[in-house]
Amino acid sequence: MTLTGEFFAFMALALVAIIGGVLLLNLNKVVHMVVALIFTFVAIAGIYILLNAEFVAAVQVLIYSGAITIIMLFGIMLTKPYDDEGESASNGSKWRRILLFLGVVGFAFAVYVGIYNFPIDQVPSNLHENNTLEVGKALYSKYIIPFEFVSVLLLASLIGAIILAKREDKEGDSK
Amino acid sequence: MSSVPASAFLALALILFCIGLYGALTKRNTVIVLISIELMLNAVNINLVTFSKYGMAPSITGQVFALFAMAVAAAEAAVGLAILMSLYRNKKTVNIDEMDQMKH
Question: Where does the sequence pass through the membrane (chain B) (predicted)?
Answer without folding.
Answer: 6-25, 32-52, 64-88
